[in-house]
Amino acid sequence: MKCLKDYNVQELNATELNEINGGATLNLGQVLDLTLGVLNIVVNAVQDAATAVAEYVAGVLGGL
């Protein structure tokens, strides 16, 4: 590995990294809120699908 001092290269500090990444920083609470929001969306979609299948099966069985 080459010595970066020879090329006047410096590491970025936390503020510079944040600016490069678009300023998006999340704390643990925000990450948990986001994760729980996504989880709720998935759970609701699965529940809706299960309800639709149950209603379909009930309709088919009711028609027999």
- The assigned structural class equals mainly alpha
Q: Uncertain regions: pLDDT < 50 for 5+ in a row?
A: none
Radius of gyration: 26 Å
Give the overall form.
rod-shaped
N-to-C order of helices and strands: HH
The main β sheet shows up as:
none
What is the typical, i.e. mean, pLDDT?
A: 86
Amount of helix: 55-70%
Beta-strand residue percentage: under 5%
Number of strands: 0
How far is it from the N-terminal to the C-terminal residue, by CA?
75 Å
Separate helix tally: 2
Summarize the structure.
With 64 residues, the chain is mainly α. Helix content is 66%, strand content 0%.
Care to describe what's here?
By secondary structure, the chain is an all-alpha fold. It contains two helices and no strands. The radius of gyration is 26 Å and the shape is rod-shaped. It starts with 13 loop residues before the first helix and ends with a helix. The model has no long low-confidence stretch (mean pLDDT 86).
